[in-house]
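Posting this for the archive.
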Amino acid sequence: MKLFTLLLLGFALSIALPARPANANDPETRTARRHFDKADKLFALGRFDEALEQYEKAFDAKPIPDFLFNIGQCYRNLGDYEAAIFSFRKFLTLEPETPRRAEVELLIDELEAKKAQAEMLARDRKSQQPKPTPRTPVTRQWWFWTGLAALAAAGGGTVYFLTRDDGLPASDLGNINFPR
């Protein structure tokens, strides 16, 4: 009996207090509409990055699932397949009974294929890049040893000429050198 009373009370309240319809004049809806209109114009002009920004602002103002579809389209056109797939999946999560479900699922499949292809191309490019040759140490370079030998010869010559003796015995009276 108690369950029946609660059900009856819930039914009576749902009839007495109907949900108020979304008012097109509330500030969130007006803000979302303004951003949506800007985004549609930018999208039509092919300025997808700016359109994406406006669609995101519209979704922030009023989280309508259809905005996620448009955000996904912007990401798809910008080539960010991962973000596009995320947006489309979120759209399907929030709007499971959408009449565009088949279209969105087809878009997700196409984007996953493109993403896999892009990843494969990136791996191929990476594997085709020439590997950098290891740098040879300076001590293995010919010019290092040639320069070292030249320095040693110059140093040895300098020491020889500074320390050589002219062959005369030293005396207390001094030595006189005559030019030859």
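The chain has a mean pLDDT of 81. Residues 101-128 form the longest helix (28 residues).
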